[in-house]
Design the sequence.
């Protein structure tokens, strides 16, 4: 089964930005932000994707990936 992965954690690490900093800069509730970081969401807020791309200076294709879920045993 496939799912959408948002590369927030990877981009934060590459840019040396903390979760606290991005939440403050983008005025995001930390709990909601953590759900996106864990790929624990049902819908993606299009405005958030635009804001993240602007913040990281990246394209949507740099932010989103389609991944295959690993089978649980």
Sequence:
């Amino acid at each position: 089964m496939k799912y959408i992965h948002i590369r927030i954690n990877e981009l934060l690490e590459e840019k040396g930005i903390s979760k606290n900093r991005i939440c403050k800069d983008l005025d995001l509730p930390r709990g909601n932000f953590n759900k996106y970081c864990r790929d624990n969401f049902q819908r993606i807020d299009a405005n958030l994707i635009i804001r993240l791309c602007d913040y990281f200076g990246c394209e949507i294709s740099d932010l989103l990936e389609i991944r295959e879920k690993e089978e649980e045993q």
